[in-house]
Input
Amino acid sequence: MSKCLVAQSGGPTSVINATIAGIVKANQLNPIYDTVLGGLHGIEGILDERFVDLTNMSDEENQILCQTPSSALGSCRYKLKRDNVADFEKLIKIMDKYDIETLFYTGGNDSMDTVAALSEYAREHNITNHRFVGCPKTVDNDLMETDHCPGFASAAKFIATTAVSTWLDYNVYTRQEVFILETMGRDAGWLAASACLSGHVDVLILPEEPFDKDLFLKQVAQSIKEKNKCYVVVSEGARYADGRYVAAGEAKNDGFGHAVLGGAARALEEMILESGVASRCKVQDLSTAQRCHASEQSAVDVTESFRLGMSAHMHSANPSFTGKMVGLKRREGEKYDVEFITVDADKVANFVKNFPTEWLLPDYKGITDEAYAYLRPLIVGEPPLIVKDGIPAHVIPYYMR
Amino acid sequence: MSKCLVAQSGGPTSVINATIAGIVKANQLNPIYDTVLGGLHGIEGILDERFVDLTNMSDEENQILCQTPSSALGSCRYKLKRDNVADFEKLIKIMDKYDIETLFYTGGNDSMDTVAALSEYAREHNITNHRFVGCPKTVDNDLMETDHCPGFASAAKFIATTAVSTWLDYNVYTRQEVFILETMGRDAGWLAASACLSGHVDVLILPEEPFDKDLFLKQVAQSIKEKNKCYVVVSEGARYADGRYVAAGEAKNDGFGHAVLGGAARALEEMILESGVASRCKVQDLSTAQRCHASEQSAVDVTESFRLGMSAHMHSANPSFTGKMVGLKRREGEKYDVEFITVDADKVANFVKNFPTEWLLPDYKGITDEAYAYLRPLIVGEPPLIVKDGIPAHVIPYYMR
Output
């Protein structure tokens, strides 16, 4: 028997560790490998041979790992460049040295490119004793070939809950008020759209739909006219038809080189106040918290992330299983259910799955019933949470031990 | 028998409605009043005779009301001015008209001033058939004469959980990084201090301690030197020795009249980047979410808020009980427990209880063991949460029905 190696890459999520926990648990139940190594800080740490042994993780640690947000093994932004042969050779050498048969890599489309590139390199060099398997994760939900991405649903749940909460808050006074919630999503609007699950979004601005300032202000004015309030949700990646980010601000238009002063929400606030459409505006930028809020996992999400790890482990018993990503396919039928599928990592790498524009109502009015049907089942369920002194328990990151 | 009237004022909290629920439930168990009216939008709506009948609230509604953040009766910023006799006369007339014996007013120190002013007015005019009772609430925890304020603990719990979560997040890369978390607290640093419950705050900046830019940068540099990271928490009200807010930015110093560009965290970020002490900085301004995040109540907090309402109701059976606020006193002993006390509302009105400077470690290094001992028990416990489709259930605000 040989070893497998798990590592994490890209931005953290609330459930990314559950995939690791799933791989570890699967190997305890069905020991395909004699050792499960964790690679610290993704490819960056693997190239430095920074490993921890996860093989005999206790059930308690496994459970707490599942509820620990952010990459417990550490992450990296290091991208294996296809022309950097030295890195490839070094990695294969390290895998040989430690007898690592399979590398499981969790991440977004950059990471899937890494998986594709490594398996391609191995194939081209007739290296048959190493396998490379991708496990998707991204709060952005923008990976192709999978119904959705582990990590998205928990962020969506946090966003929807925060939207309900802040909507309840901004309504309490009789005065005129606009609230602007900014979510992550530089290229895809999935997270911003999920705020609609609150049922209270008046104006929704996604990157997928060119931003039209006049139409936006008209819609805010309409809402103010109807109820003296307007709840706006904007994706950080909202942009004009010519590609300029709304977040870059008006200043950029006039060529004066003014500094970029904030996010998309602040830019919208400025438009609203300057135009006089409303006199009060509050901004909430969810920033980092939305992708890692410990007490707001979706049970569906964390379970799927865990099971995806188990599925990846099982598939990897097949010596020809390489260059693949394990994805999720939604089953037909009334009741929400998924099956785990395998897809070629190169079909995922470097693509972006946008929020479908046909799921958008016209004039920034939100999302269609089809979009609700897609989103709603994902955020369901609250996993039991181990709490210590009022704060969710978490494992000490492995890179700190 | 006569009626009582409950109303809410000032900024919302996560548990403010539990006090209303406690008053309603207490009157169901021990009907001192034949009717419990809810006044919409505080004094503002009461003067417009905008009432709802809460007397026969179902147990289910009562339970969901307890977990509904923000003022379900609506709020106001309207302050009864002591020289505005017309308002006082009108209010007494309305109370006479509806046979309202007791007004329960939940709020911060402005609201306690309203309670004090009304009872004073009544005493001066020999009005003996109306009583005015204050129930404290404020996330800022800055009211005198009470160990702490309902609402604070849930906000503190959200802040501590977010601090743990974002700390786990910002650590994942090997690169240098500063994270700055900004909390509410214009005059008092209780909320910012509560982030220390995460165990991960390197630099803590409160309004109670004059801000010294050089010392701040020195402390950040020290942390960067030690571990390449620095986790900063700052209160929105952080200020220089001369009283200027840090949030007002450096620009204000030079008299050029530059616009205020953001909060305290953004100002600190600018200082760090400009000084070159660190090259990367992330900011998370918790903004509105910290005072209303539905899924993050502290069980201690919501229970105390509910019981405080019951206690206020019970005390109000005494015809001479007026101009009082019901507060919390922490019992001596190892195990955390409180009793409900009554204090004169005018001893609370218009004062601010600061975070004790003797509970601060020198050089922005955080808080003392005594401070931890004070804070820790408050955030304990997670109340059972009724969730619908993945989002915490809430009552429809009464002012929207």
